[in-house]
Q: What sequence folds into this?
């Protein structure tokens, strides 16, 4: 089983004056957990900003294969020590998927080491997402491109380190282009960023987006996990020990 933790700040969906409360009454995390939970090889649990310790402990991360992170207006409310814990878990081998505005989340920025800045606009632009790396596991079953009737517009420059692979590139009717799906290796772990998913659009109910997230979970699952990968141990020589 692939153990997935879906983390969501869960703020917009609780605001009855926000459209997100109508689209995702049980939270974005609830929708993602629901479709992932239908898979025989995936075990899902959720956590939110209001949970104790944001729903994250070292023990929970040690028992998580892939974390999915959605955040927007609550980035500053995530304690630095929680962000550092997630970063270390990824370096140890846990997979991480960051969605939409999570480009400015503390864990993502720590893993990227850059500004992660971009341009944006809310204008109901249609987005056409092109598959730039059709052989990548995350792109399987997606096709040459797909379209989202409306989503928040993100634009370049995107202040991220050069991705290992750019899996998807988005184009908007307003003219912008954006690296909409990117992967990185960080230590023993894998990281995927997926741009579509503004809270006031039903993006996570789209079967293509769901397929991408499902593919990403299976791609990001650990291949090798270690402990304390940030340590610098002083070890004896193997060759000298053999001679003795």
A:
């Amino acid at each position: 089983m692939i153990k997935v933790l879906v983390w969501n700040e869960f703020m917009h969906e609780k605001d009855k004056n926000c459209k997100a409360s109508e689209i995702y009454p049980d939270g974005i995390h609830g929708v993602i957990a629901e479709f992932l939970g239908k898979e025989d090889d995936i075990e899902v649990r959720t956590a939110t900003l209001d949970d104790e310790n944001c729903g994250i402990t070292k023990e929970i991360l040690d028992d998580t294969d892939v974390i999915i992170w959605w955040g927007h207006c609550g980035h500053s409310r995530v304690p630095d020590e929680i962000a550092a814990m997630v970063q270390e878990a990824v370096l140890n081998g846990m997979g991480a998927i960051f969605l939409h505005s999570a480009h400015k989340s503390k864990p993502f920025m720590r893993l990227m080491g850059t500004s992660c800045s971009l341009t944006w606009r809310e204008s109901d632009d249609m987005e056409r997402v092109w598959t730039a790396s059709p052989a990548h596991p995350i792109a399987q079953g997606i096709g040459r491109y797909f379209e989202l009737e409306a989503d928040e517009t993100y634009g370049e420059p995107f202040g991220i380190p050069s991705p290992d692979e750019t899996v998807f590139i988005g184009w908007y009717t307003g003219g912008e282009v954006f690296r909409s799906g990117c992967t990185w290796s960080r230590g023993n772990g894998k990281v995927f960023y997926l741009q579509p998913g503004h809270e006031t659009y039903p993006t996570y109910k789209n079967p293509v987006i769901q397929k991408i997230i499902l593919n990403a979970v299976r791609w990001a699952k650990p291949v090798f996990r270690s402990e304390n990968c940030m340590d610098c141990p002083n070890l004896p020589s193997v060759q000298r020990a053999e001679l003795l």
Summary: The first helix runs from residue 20 to 23. The first strand starts at residue 2 and ends at 8.
